[in-house]
Write a structure and sequence with these properties.
The chain has about 180 residues and is an all-alpha fold. It has one domain. Helix 1 crosses helix 2, helix 1 runs parallel beside helix 3 and helix 1 packs across helix 4. The longest helix has about 40 residues. The radius of gyration is 20 Å and the shape is globular.
């Protein structure tokens, strides 16, 4: 189906919004991974008993942490003491952006959304937000990655995890 220019631009606003929100969620996952390697794993290794307990403890930790708001996850980062002032500024900034996107973006941009130039401005604004999320995720990952490597999580293991997750997806889909 061929869209008229206005409909195409509206679709592009929604697409950029979705991509910005996606990258906001990537930051949340980066925060969780950081907490995992700086908080959970050191404690879990110290009390390791069986692989089953390891998996169970991980599942409990993941469920607890991922049920938190992004603001609470950021506070947890402060508790494990791995922030720099630059990262703290980035996290504060992306939290404001993420909350605005989730709770007020479209209502505050209702008038702009009705106009061609307004929608163009929204696309540029959403692209900038996405880039801010990406930069923050990169900052977090730059701190977390060396620690992940110390725990033995190398590129081959990451590839295997991804392949296993893809296989699990295909299996679930075939059963549906």
């Amino acid at each position: 189906m061929i869209l008229d220019p206005e409909s195409e631009q509206i679709r592009d606003v929604y697409a950029h919004f979705g991509l910005a929100v996606y990258w906001g969620q990537c930051v949340e996952q980066s925060i969780f991974q950081h907490l995992l390697f700086f908080d959970h794993f050191p404690k879990a290794i110290a009390k390791f008993t069986t692989p089953e307990n390891w998996v169970n403890d991980f599942d409990i930790y993941e469920e607890r942490e991922m049920s938190q708001t992004m603001g609470k996850l950021i506070r947890r980062l402060k508790e494990v003491g791995q922030q720099t002032s630059t990262l703290e500024h980035s996290l504060s900034n992306v939290l404001k952006i993420r909350n605005w996107l989730a709770h007020g973006y479209f209502p505050e941009r209702a008038i702009e959304f009705t106009m061609k130039d307004g929608r163009a401005d929204m696309i540029a604004e959403l692209e900038e937000m996405k880039e801010q999320f990406q930069l923050c995720a990169q900052e977090l990952d730059a701190i977390t990655l060396p620690v992940m490597r110390k725990f033995g999580l190398n590129d081959d293991m990451l590839s295997k995890i991804q392949a296993d997750m893809e296989a699990e997806y295909v299996q679930r889909k075939s059963k549906a």
